[in-house]
Design brief:
Blueprint lengths: L3 H5 L14 H12 L5 E6 L6 H14 L7 H8 L3 E3 L2 E3 L8 H19 L9 H10 L3 E8 L7 H17 L3 E7 L7 H22 L2 E6 L5 H9 L8 H11 L3 H14 L9 H28 L5 H10 L4 E3 L5 H9 L4 E3 L2 E3 L3 H15 L7 E5 L2 E6 L2 E6 L2 H13 L4 E3 H5 L8 H23 L4 E4 L3 E4 L4
Parallel strand pairs: 1-5, 1-6, 2-4, 3-4, 4-5
Antiparallel strand pairs: 7-9, 8-9, 10-11, 11-12, 13-15, 14-15
Helix pairs in contact: 2-4, 5-6, 5-7, 6-7, 7-8, 10-11, 11-12, 12-15, 13-15
Amino acid sequence: MINPTQEKFTLKPLSPQYFVGRGEQVYRILYNGLIARTPNLLILRGPQRIGRTSLLYFTQALARTNGANTDYASIFKESTNKAKLSCPYIDLRVLSSGQPEEVKTTFIEVLAQSLYEQSSGDISEKTLYGLVEAMASHSQYHFILLIDRAEHLLDQRIQATINDILGVLNDAVPNLGILLSFGASGELSAQDVIHRTAEIDQSIESISSLMNLVRYDIDIGLLQPYEAEQFLTEASPAYFSKEEVNWILDMAGTHPYLLNLASILTLEQKQSSQRSLTTTELNIVENNALNQLKPRINNIWKRLSDLKDYEALDLALTIASSPSHAIAISSVSEELVSILEGEGLVQKSDSDWVMPSGLFRRLLLEHAEQGNKPRTNSNSMHVSGNTLIIRVDGISHSVALTEKETKIMEMLLNAGPDELVTNEDLLRIWLPSGNELNDQQKLSQRLKALRNKLKPILNENPIENVYGAGYRLKYPK
């Protein structure tokens, strides 16, 4: 017989019966997916292992029951306006080969299964067009197609086939919303994440413009503190004492994956006892969790280092070592924020950024004590939008940049201090005109303009020309 806590606390997507919180996201999926009976494209994004798939499973289960017998009944009623709803779910990870027939067959199976739930009769013609006609005939139903792991749309073979399928659905089914859920990868470097984000945005734009869909973005981040506590106590008050709940919350913070990990390890430690864990036993659990999380922290550390932003790790460590684990952050590059939030390290709380996980805090500080901390630099430069932020002697200066100047500075900053960026790389900012001399003159003019903007602040030329090779950036000293 399976222990109910073993079903609840899992490192896999959560069973809908144990789902808590995320009321805003549930409402927005249902409401924005159906609003005004127009086709809508929903984009769900958030940190790695934050619970996107669990949210989609729960949304699908909620649709099957019309919200009945759940804490979300009022949300369902308000957001759907009593509409009958079906949420077919498809995970693009199953499309391993990317072959058109495999993609098409998978969609047919998912749509057929969804229609079987709505129809007492047999769906006799299991072809795409037959199923689309059957969906259209169910005029009393609204459909929201949940597409998980949509980052696989970056595979051009998969994207082309899915675009065709979505086009057929969009043309024939009047009450159809589409949700694309994009997952993160812990193996990508910081720059790869930034580049992939741009590619994903292009893919989204191609889908929304091709099908004339209205786009709604939905973010999913860490849980609220009361939701994390509810998750630990609602279904299993007999398994954790109040002290153990508080200890798990301090260790895991509000990150769903860490809450599950700490709960599983705590239950394993309690397996043979009928009492609360001692301090020594809790320390054993903590060390087990730290050992499992070390590879993840190593990767986070590398990502922050890859940004070539010497404020990045200092900022993470400052939050980790702060007594309240919260500080106000201003003038921070979008890339840095995307990494900090994208790994579930921090969340915004009013005007402060908070690092709620004691496990993450301890691992970061231990990493720094082992001599891995980068050199600190009270002076720095980073790009935010089309503005260059230069900090000299603790004072920040803002420099407005043109689009081309922004791209040049981003390339120089990404290369890092005193590292060469070749002429060839910089010239890629412009489309080749066929006249190499003309392109080089454009680059030289932009670099001269940049130097003129930066020199009054830095009292020196920060962009050094390495004759015949390229350019490198000298950071303020």
